[in-house]
Write a structure and sequence with these properties.
Elements (H helix, E strand, L loop, with lengths): L6 H14 L2 H4 L2 H20 L3 H21 L4 H12 L5 E2 L5 E2 L3
Antiparallel strand pairs: 1-2
Helix pairs in contact: 1-4, 3-4
Length: about 100
C-alpha cells in the first residue's frame, strides 16, 4: 500500500491548508466550533445510516475543524490529544457489552 503520513505531518498539511485560505488568520475558534458541531451532526447521521464512507468523511472533517481551532489557539492538535491521553491513561475499568462502564478502584 501507499505510505501513510504520520499524524504530525497531516496536522502540518492541514494547518498550511488553513493558512493558505486565511482560515487561521481570519476565522475564530467560536466560528470553527460551530463548523465542528455541523460536522458532528453529519457524523451522527452517518452512524445512524451505517454509512462507513460517511463516517470516515465526517470524522476527517471534524479533525480538520479541530485542527483549525487548535491553530487559532496556537496549540497543536497532537498536544491536545497527548494531554487527554495523560489524563486517561491510568484510569481503570471497562465498558461492558451492555454499555455500562465498570470502574475499578
Amino acid at each position: 500500500g501507499k505510505n501513510m503520513k504520520t499524524f504530525n505531518i497531516i496536522e502540518l498539511d492541514v494547518v498550511r491548508w488553513g493558512e493558505a485560505r486565511g482560515i487561521i488568520q481570519n476565522s475564530t475558534s467560536a466560528a470553527q466550533v460551530i463548523k465542528t458541531q455541523e460536522e458532528l451532526d453529519e457524523l451522527v447521521d452517518a452512524i445512524a445510516a451505517n454509512d462507513k464512507e460517511g463516517i470516515i468523511d465526517a470524522i476527517g472533517d471534524i479533525m480538520v475543524t479541530l485542527t483549525m481551532i487548535a491553530a487559532i489557539e496556537d496549540v497543536s492538535l497532537v498536544k491536545c490529544y497527548a494531554a487527554a491521553y495523560e489524563q486517561i491513561k491510568d484510569r481503570k475499568g471497562h465498558l461492558t457489552k451492555d454499555g455500562i462502564f465498570v470502574k475499578e478502584s
